[in-house]
Specification:
104 residues; mainly alpha; Ribonucleotide Reductase Protein R1, domain 1; 63% helix; AdenyloSucc_lyase_C; Adenylosuccinate lyase C-terminal domain-containing protein; (S)-2-(5-amino-1-(5-phospho-D-ribosyl)imidazole-4-carboxamido) succinate lyase (fumarate-forming) activity
Length: 104
Amino acid sequence: FTRGLVFSQRVMLALIEKELSRQKAYEMVQRNAMKSWKGNKNFLTLLKADPEVTGTISPEELEILFDYQHYLQHVDEIFQRLGLTKSQWQGSISESMDLGPRAI
């Protein structure tokens, strides 16, 4: 699928929060994203193996950034606005998908 590349923005912002310049954070993320894309390799694995990245952000912090739940945190509210109750949609979505961090 995405090999984890969907999380590249979160990683870049986390690096910026660690007081790296936006340009430096972009270069670090882009370098690993291109390796992932061209080499069909897992993005998180590449980031963890990059000493420049792990010198700024820990592997444990990286794991936290690679959690799909971050993107789904407002799903309940969105469906509620559509007039759907939790029981109408929850089973078909949450039970059919494992959205935790994983290697792809």
